[in-house]
Amino acid sequence: MTARIDLHTHSTASDGTALPAAVVQEAAAAGLDVVALTDHDTTQGWVEAAAALPAGLSLVRGAELSAVHGGVSLHLLAYLFDPDEPVLAAALGELRDARVRRAELMARALEAAGTGVTWARVQELAQGTVGRPHLARALIEQGHVGSVAEAFTSQWIGADGPYWVPREDLDAVTAIALVRDAGGVTVLAHPRASARGDTVDDAAVAELAVAGLLGLEVDHVDHDEQARADLAGLAADLGLLMTGSSDFHGASKPVRLGAHLTSPAAYERLVSAATGVEVLAA
Ligand code: AMP
Ligand code: ZN
Ligand code: FE
Ligand code: FE
Question: What is the phi/psi pair of residue 158, to 5°?
Answer without folding.
Answer: -65, 165
